[in-house]
Amino acid sequence: MIETEGLSFTYDDGTKALQHITLRIREGESAGIIGTNGAGKSTLLNHLNGWFTPQSGTVTVDSIRSTKKSQETLRRKVGLVFQNPDDQLFMTRLYDDIMFGPDNLGMHRKESEAEAERLLRNFGLWELREKPPSKLSQGQKRFAAFAAVLVMRPPILVMDEPTSDLDPRNRKKLISLLRSLSSTRITVSHDLDFIWDTCDRVFVMNSGRISAEGTTTDILADRALLEENGLELPIRLQD
User: Fold this and answer.
1) Residue 237 within a domain
2) Is pTM beyond 0.85 here?
3) Residue-range definition of the domain harbouring residue 189
4) Are 49 and 80 in contact (CB under 8 A)?
5) How far apart are CA 96 and CA 112, in angstroms?
6) Of 40, 54, 38, the residue nearest 3 (C-alpha)
7) Residues 167, 139: contact at Cβ < 8 Å?
8) Tens digit of pLDDT per residue, the chain (239 long)?
9) Would residue 238 count as lying in a domain?
């Protein structure tokens, strides 16, 4: 479903964010990407739906090569939930934010409205649909951002730190939601217990490179590997 080959990216200030990244994620797989701050995780995510296009190397999503011309097509296939919901919610009414994507993609209005209502009810936001997003709590904004992406039914869901502003109850709710999805999922998170609960396979990033990959249990139970990459065991595995 997703493949990168020799992907490299350098920011204008000379920071080498990605260095020869090669990875493959199969259709229906749930993959986690972990690493310290500055490892290149968010930069990699932003290549998967065309926000960034490769400076060198390639990104291929569902047999479509990422180029300037294919950006719109990629964004129909890859739904990105930003790290900060305030970057994703910009309308004056919550319901308009949820319908923004379907309306701009020309999706069937009645079907999209039914899906929007289903999602908002599931997230406990239906009664808040007339409110400005700025009046919501951070946790409510987080679920609103998910609804705004899921309403478009993307075959690939990409998430950047999805639990950063969720309390334990809503964190469990999100885990249950993700487990119910059949879409291909890619999650960047410092919450390794969340990665343990929701991902099949894990890639470890360090200084813009993939330093390790393997099954979730093999990677997250390897204390030495995690410490070599500036990480710690998930809380559930700590003494």
Assistant:
1) no
2) yes
3) 2-231
4) yes
5) 12
6) 54
7) yes
8) 899 999 999 999 999 999 999 999 999 999 999 999 999 999 999 999 888 999 999 999 999 999 999 988 888 899 999 889 998 899 999 999 999 989 888 888 999 999 999 999 999 999 999 999 999 999 999 999 999 999 999 999 999 999 988 899 999 999 998 999 999 999 999 999 999 999 999 999 999 999 999 999 999 999 999 999 999 999 999 87
9) no
